[in-house]
Structures are given as structure tokens and as C-alpha cells.
Amino acid sequence: MSSLFFFLSFVALFSALGVVLAKNPVHSVLFLILTFFTISGHYLLLNAQFLAAVNIIVYAGAIMVLFLFVIMFLNLNADTEPHKSALSKIAAAIAGGSLLLILVAALRDIQPGGVDASTFDSQIGMVDRLGMVLYKQYMLPFELVSVLFIVAMVGAMMLGKRETGERNF
Amino acid sequence: MELPALGWQALVILVVFGVSLLIATYSTYAERVIAAFLQDRVGPDRAGPFGLLQPLADAVKLFTKEEFFPAGSNRALFVFGPCLAMVTALMASAVIPFGNYLQFGSTIIWLQGIEVNIGMLYVFGVVSLGVYGIMIGGWASNNKFSLLGAIRAASQNISYELAMGLSLIAVLMISETLSLREITLQQSVPGEWQFWNIVKQPLGFIIFIVCAFAETNRTPFDLPECETELVGGYHTEYSSMKMGLYLFAEYINVFVASAVMSVLYFGGFNFPFQYELRAFLAESQGMVTAHNIVTGLGVVAIFVKIFSFIFFFMWVRWTLPRFRYDQLMRLGWTILIPLAIFNILLTGG
């Protein structure tokens, strides 16, 4: 099991680096899809089947298709590549560095404890158990998130809607 | 002959894999025979008796053709595209229950690749990945027609996935499980009248089958390869066996879609009066043998259902003309999705 974990982690890190370092944006997207797969593998190791499947369906299956869709429309040549100013590079480095600092600080004190096999509930992370928790314990936040989604959807439709008098093509 | 449980399961997976490939191979032959029948032609009858060796001849032809790489194409992704299409097409059949279990002494063999309690989500996830092969292949070809085909495939797939997912939710609401095996078993309970899901979900089934046509890129929704507008669509630049893999992947997708429809709506491996038959056989043969015989007949039953659906796919292909692209989008977004939401309300009410 732990060798599987190390393999998945290695592939996850490798493909995540590939996303950032690949010259071609289409390669970046493909590396990102691979990263999502390895993360789903980690979810499976954590006994969260539903989360793993939904991660694949939503991220790899829908969002990444749209990413690829948009990137295919762009005219991607070396000379059209935008040049970033030194200021934005420095700002990005500082933002990324502070995020790393926060993550390291937060995870530093964690005791890596295993689970007790005799008391471990094998059904944890299964879809019916997750539904029970979401709809009983976290009913209100769950519904609020749904409302937020609907607002976002309506907003997107308003933005994308044709104004009266605008040409169709 | 003492294989551990895992060994038997590996064998089942291997058989499912082989059967998928075999069915895809002969789907190409069946498609041509059915096309010929519907158009009152003779069809393939040269290679072997009734032209049965035609798929073999096609394979030899595809393998011996020149392997062509278009100028300016992305070579790695150009090869990767058809491979991905094939892999994602083959993955889905892993969770489909092709039969109940067989029992030999103490060994129990489940006639299903793997039983997961999120089977329906797994199939849905794999189906949603199927479009990558087409997109990557179309983009890597460095051809405008291929790119247009790829883009059409992507937007069509995303649009129809929504309606498909919503029609699956209605099935989920009546079955209360995501496991395909349990959904199958629920559709036939010994000793009581239990109807297949098609009786409870007629509207959902119609939505699902229309979406299945769109997801597998079959006529009337084969806009990604629409040859009257786009030469050959996403596979314009492909030749040799890479082209063959795309065609193969399409037939495997048709097979998987048919299998999923049989399981979700038509009772899977159940057939009428199976428990009565088992009870009758158990008197003379004993319970275990009777169960094995009924399981075997169940496998026959699900394949009869699958072949009927494959025939339906081909029948539609050679009957209906292709939709226009805006018609396709309008059907998906303004008719199927509201209808699917209405179906959920109807199921819940």
C-alpha cells in the first residue's frame, strides 16, 4: 500500500511540475489531467470512492475538456506568447513563496498517526455515509453552497446573453 | 485448477476484454450487412462464407496501409489520440455485470470485472473521458477540418453529458444505489412482480438513449466526423491502424452504451420466470447446478439485449439523416435538459 502511495505521489509531483514547466499549453492541460488522476488515486487510498469518482467526472471529464476547448481556439505561436513584466514575476514569486510558508507552518506539527485497524470503520467515505453527513449534519452549509451555485449560473447566463439589437454572428 | 479468487477475477476481466474486442470487430461487419439490408443491396459476401472473414480482411488492409504523419502535426499527441480513445472505450466494460455468480464447489465466480459500489459513477466518469481521444487527435493533426471536428466533439459531449447525468439521477432515485449489480438484482425479486426500470422510467430511458447516441458520436449526431462538411472530421488526417483504432473505439463505445442501457433499464442479466425455472431445475439437478444453468441463460439474456441495442444503433444510423449543428445544440440544451429535470421531479413526486 505504501509503495502505491509513493508511486502516486511521484507521478502527481512529476505531472504537477509538468503543468508549470511545459512550453505547450496543450501539454500543460494533459499534465493537469494526469495530476487529477493521481489525486483521485490518493482519494481511493483514503477509502473515499465517491470523492475519487466525482473528482474525475467534474475536473477531468468536464472542466478540463473546457480548458482544452478554449486552448485549441487560441493561436499559439512562440511570437504571440505574452511577455510578463518583471514586477508581475516578483509578485508571483512572493505570493507563491508565502503560500508555501503557510502550508509548511500548518503541516509542521502534524503527528503522522495511522488508524487503528480494529476500530476502523470500513464504510467511511462511501457514498451513502457521505450523503448522511451532508444532508443531516451539514444541511445548511450544503444548501447555501447550492444557492451560491445557482447565483453563479444565473450570473454567467446574464453575462453571456445577447443584448437586444446585437447581431447573431 | 485451483486458482485463488483474484485469479478467477483476472480471468473474467480478460474474457470481458476479449469479448468487447470481438463484438467491436463483428460490429463493423454487422453494420455493413445491416446497411446493405436496409438499402436493398447485397453487402459484404466475398471474404469467407457470408463474408464472415470481412473484418479480418479489413484489419489486414488497415495494417498494411501507409502510416502517414501530416506536416506540422504534433507527432506524440497524434499517436496518443487514438490510443486514448481506445483505452477509455475499453475501461467502461470493467464494472458491467454480465451475469450473476457461478458456483463450483466452494469457488464463486462473479461474472463481472470488478464490483464497485460507485459503478454508475465509474461508467459516467469513463464516458466523460472518452472525448479526449477525439480532441487530442483532432488538434494534433494540424488541420482545420480536424480541429473543427474536435471542437464539435467536445461541445457536443459536454452538452449531452448533462442530460445523461440528470436521467441517471432519476434511476438512482428509484434504486437508491450506485452499484450496477444491485440495480440489476433489484429489477427482479423472487416471488413478486418486479418490473424492469424501463416501466418506471420510460422518459428517462428515452433521454438516456438520445444522449447515448450523442456521446458515442453515432448518426444522427455524428457531427464530429460529418463528412459532407468536414471531409472526415477529427480523423481526416489519420490512416492505417490509427484510423482503425478510432473506428474500433466507436464500436466499443456503442457496445458499452448498449450494455449500460440493458443493465439500467432492461434488467441486465434477468429474464422472465428465471426463479421459476431455477426452482424447476433444482428438483432434478440440485440447487447449485440449477443456479449455474440460470446464470448461463442470464448471460445469454444480457447479450441478446445488448445485440438488440447495437442493432438499434445501426438501424437508426441507416434510417435518419444527420442533424444540423445548431439543431443538435438546441435539442440538447432546450429540450433534453429541461425534460430530464422534469423527469427527476416526476420520479420524486
From TrEMBL, chain A:
Any one cellular-component term (Gene Ontology): plasma membrane
Membrane association type: Multi-pass membrane protein
Functional note: NDH-1 shuttles electrons from NADH, via FMN and iron-sulfur (Fe-S) centers, to quinones in the respiratory chain. Couples the redox reaction to proton translocation (for every two electrons transferred, four hydrogen ions are translocated across the cytoplasmic membrane), and thus conserves the redox energy in a proton gradient.
Protein name according to UniProt: NADH-quinone oxidoreductase subunit J
UniProt enzyme class: translocase
InterPro entries: NADH_UbQ/plastoQ_OxRdtase_su6, Nuo/plastoQ_OxRdtase_6_NuoJ
Compartments where located: Cell membrane
PANTHER family tied to this protein: NADH-UBIQUINONE OXIDOREDUCTASE CHAIN 6 (PTHR33269:SF17)
Main location: membrane
Superkingdom of the source species: Bacteria
TM regions (residue ranges): 28-46, 53-74, 86-107, 138-159
Family that this chain belongs to: Belongs to the complex I subunit 6 family.
EC numbers on record: 7.1.1.-
Substrates-to-products reaction catalysed: a quinone + NADH + 5 H(+)(in) = a quinol + NAD(+) + 4 H(+)(out)
Gene Ontology molecular-function annotations: NADH dehydrogenase (ubiquinone) activity; quinone binding
Key words of the record: Cell membrane, Membrane, NAD, Quinone, Transmembrane, Transmembrane helix
From TrEMBL, chain B:
Domain of life: Bacteria
GO MF: NADH dehydrogenase activity; oxidoreductase activity, acting on NAD(P)H, quinone or similar compound as acceptor; quinone binding
Cross-referenced InterPro entries: NADH_UbQ_OxRdtase_su1/FPO, NADH_UbQ_OxRdtase_su1_CS
Keywords carried by this UniProt record: Cell membrane, Membrane, NAD, Oxidoreductase, Quinone, Translocase, Transmembrane, Transmembrane helix, Ubiquinone
Compartments (UniProt record): Cell membrane; Membrane
Main location: membrane
Reactions mediated catalytically: a quinone + NADH + 5 H(+)(in) = a quinol + NAD(+) + 4 H(+)(out)
GO cellular component labels: plasma membrane
EC number: 7.1.1.-
Enzyme class per UniProt: translocase
PROSITE patterns referenced in this protein's UniProt entry, alphabetically: COMPLEX1_ND1_1, COMPLEX1_ND1_2
Stretches assigned to coiled coil: none
UniProt-listed GO biological process terms: aerobic respiration
A Pfam family annotated for this UniProt entry: NADHdh
Description of how the protein assembles with itself and partners: NDH-1 is composed of 14 different subunits. Subunits NuoA, H, J, K, L, M, N constitute the membrane sector of the complex.
PANTHER family: NADH DEHYDROGENASE SUBUNIT 1, NADH-UBIQUINONE OXIDOREDUCTASE CHAIN 1
Function description: NDH-1 shuttles electrons from NADH, via FMN and iron-sulfur (Fe-S) centers, to quinones in the respiratory chain. The immediate electron acceptor for the enzyme in this species is believed to be ubiquinone. Couples the redox reaction to proton translocation (for every two electrons transferred, four hydrogen ions are translocated across the cytoplasmic membrane), and thus conserves the redox energy in a proton gradient. This subunit may bind ubiquinone.
Name this polypeptide is given: NADH-quinone oxidoreductase subunit H
Organism: Hymenobacter qilianensis
Top-level taxonomy: Bacteria, Pseudomonadati, Bacteroidota, Cytophagia, Cytophagales
Gene name of this polypeptide: nuoH
